[in-house]
Amino acid sequence: MARQDFSFFHTLRVRWSEVDMQAIVFNGHYLNYFDVAFTEYWRATALPGVLAQSAAGLELFARKAGIEYHAPARFDDVLEIGVRCAELGRSSLRFVLEIYRAEALLISGEMVYVHADSRVRKSEPVPATWRSRLAEFEQGLGVLT
User: Fold this and answer.
1) Number of independent structural domains in the chain
2) Torsion over CA of 87, 45, 57 and 62, rounded to 10 degrees?
3) Whole domain around residue 33: which residue ranges?
4) When you count CB atoms within 10 A of the terminal residue's CB, does the N or C end of the chain come out lower?
């Protein structure tokens, strides 16, 4: 995916505690970076946050996460994490994420969530209001299917 295909970026600086003995970011931290960026993306959409979702009993459950490593990040690098809603299914939402240092693509991946009734742990359709808000937020950068 091209950098300009993202409607949202979150900036994060690599901390000392995230670097391993190879002097690069330990691989497990990239999922945390994805999660932090996704949380900020969701906050920016103004859709119901995790506390409101929990109170309603209808939440997003993580279903899948994948990472592809292109190049490592290092201590004190300033990273820009792009987040984009790439696909809306009946009850699922697929997000594409990429991590950049300046213009260099370091990491790409995806996260899939399922909208579900948390009381019975069964999928529920993504609300129409969420669909329209996500499409609006993405500003026509791609068709949400």
Assistant:
1) 1
2) 40
3) 3-138
4) C
